[in-house]
Amino acid sequence: MTTDFKSRIYLAGPFFSDAQNARLDEVAALLASNPTVGYVFEPVKHQQDEIVAEYGNGSLETAMKTKEWQDATYHADIQGINQANAVVAMLDFDIENGNVRPDEGTMFEIGYAIALRKPVIIVQYAQNDEPLNLMLAGSYTGYFWGKDDIQKLGTYDFVNFPKHLVKKNVF
């Protein structure tokens, strides 16, 4: 039996610097090229334009400080995860400055997806010796680690979600 079903993906990850955006753009392009993916929700592309115009005078940086923008963004992201079949989460945060710990917002999105019993696919460009937290190690379906491995997102089966494991120390 063949099916035309394609998964909806929520792409989680920080987008506070050019380097973070470049990584997210590369992953989004790989997902868009994947024949098992039908839609990718990218929070960075849903920044509440009406609220930015009204409460931030056109400035996202100003709008981000308002309760209106924060509430709208939180609810849009939760809705994006609710509607997704899986979450692809960028674990790299500020690796250019030596910060290998993940972004708190991304960790929340992973936890929320796990609570909803949705597959979580972790993506990490930085191949370092930093151990993986036990809760992340026990919760992911796929872990794509390093630039070459990440390229496999273009052909990964986002309908059946086979395990794609990595050997990392866990703490």
UniProtKB/TrEMBL annotation:
Read off the InterPro entries from this record: 2'-dNMP_N-hydrolase, Nucleoside_deoxyribTrfase
- Protein name in UniProt: Nucleoside 2-deoxyribosyltransferase
Query: What species was this sequence derived from?
Result: Periweissella fabaria
